[in-house]
Amino acid sequence: MKNSIFIILVGFSITLFGQNKRYFDSLVNYKISLGLKCIDSSKYENATVHFLQATQIPTTLPNEILFYLGKCSYYLKEYEKSIQLIDKFATLTDTNTSYYIESQIIKEEILKKEEKNITVQIQNTEKPCKDEEVLICPICRGTKVIVKNSKIGPIFTNCESCDEKGQIKCIDYLDYLRGKNNK
Ligand SMILES: [Zn+2]
């Protein structure tokens, strides 16, 4: 007799939990749909609010929410935040999804913008490089080594930009930047 009451109670609480989960999941979907509508009408601040509200709901969230937030941050010119969200999203999603591909395009755009800023700063000075001026190699940051992340862990290669000297002629660095932007 006691056992059957116990089973009924356990059964009841599982159903309740299931119903809650379904309720919370539909709430998440609702918030996401509101956010996506805002993205469609370029209201990225409002969209961010809806997505953040969705993250407060106690249920499992779809990974795409990181992508949506990253996309909004990009349009709100919060580039650092955008890259953080996109990188986090990349660790959780398959690389053959359209969301992943779009997120990588956004990331590329941000990196291009940042590199252009450096070039503009240098080009704006009347004479960008003083005669024979030498810089600490900005590509390897003077370490003479480039670290790249790969699936099997970091890979170290010698820095070709500075010929493994850790220093680079200012003029050569300008060529490097211009070459990269022309690609
Ligand atoms: Zn270097």
Shape by Cα distribution: elongated
Strand percentage, roughly? 5-15%
Would you identify the regions where 5 or more consecutive residues have pLDDT less than 50? none
Fraction of helical residues: 55-70%
| Biggest beta-sheet profile | 2 strands, antiparallel
Give the cofactors and ligands. Answer: zinc ion
Q: Give the strand line-up of the largest sheet.
A: 1-4
Overall mean confidence score, pLDDT: 84
From N to C, what is the helix and strand string?
A: HHHHHEEEEH
SS class: mainly alpha
Q: Indicate the radius of gyration in whole angstroms.
A: 25 Å
Number of strands: 4
Tally of structural domains? 3
Number of discrete helical segments: 6
Ends distance: 78 Å
Question: How would you sum up this structure, described in words?
Answer:
The chain has 183 residues and is mostly helical. It folds into three domains: 1-61; 63-124, no CATH class; 126-183, Chaperone, DNAj Protein, Chain A (Ribbon), CATH 2.10.230. The chain is 64% helix and 10% strand. The protein contains six helices and four strands. The strands form two sheets. It has a two-stranded antiparallel ribbon. The chain has a two-stranded antiparallel ribbon with strand order 2-3. Strand 2 (145-150) and strand 3 form a beta hairpin. Helix 5 (98-124) runs antiparallel to helix 6 (170-182). The longest helix is centred in the first third of the chain and has 39 residues, at 2-40. The radius of gyration is 25 Å and the shape is elongated. The N and C termini lie far apart (78 Å). The relative contact order is 0.07. The model has no long low-confidence stretch (mean pLDDT 84). The protein binds zinc ion. Zinc ion is lined by residues 137, 139-140, 144, 159, 161-162, 166.
